[in-house]
Amino acid sequence: MRSFPFRHQARLLSIAVVAVDEGWELWVSEDDRRLAYGGRVSVDQAIAGWRVGDDLVQELAEEVKSNVLTGKLAIASAPDRSSAA
Known about the structure:
The protein is α+β, with helices and mostly antiparallel strands. It has one domain. 28% of the residues lie in helices and 40% in strands. The protein has two helices and four strands; from the N terminus they run E-E-E-E-H-H. A hairpin with a 2-residue loop joins strand 1 and strand 2. The longest helix has 15 residues, at 56-70. The radius of gyration is 14 Å and the shape is elongated.
């Protein structure tokens, strides 16, 4: 599975690329837990981009990362592991 790791507020997050019907969804994830939906690239879009030398999945991943870092895309808070039994 393709992913794009990054750090945000002392957390190691990643943009996970998930195959779906006719395309790929991008999700902000932490420890394999999906936190926020980032967007979708269809197969047709990916092929059209590839034909001109663009990687639309990577471009969307960079946009999603930027949205998280700037606060445009809110993500769930980290779970409080100290209270786990």
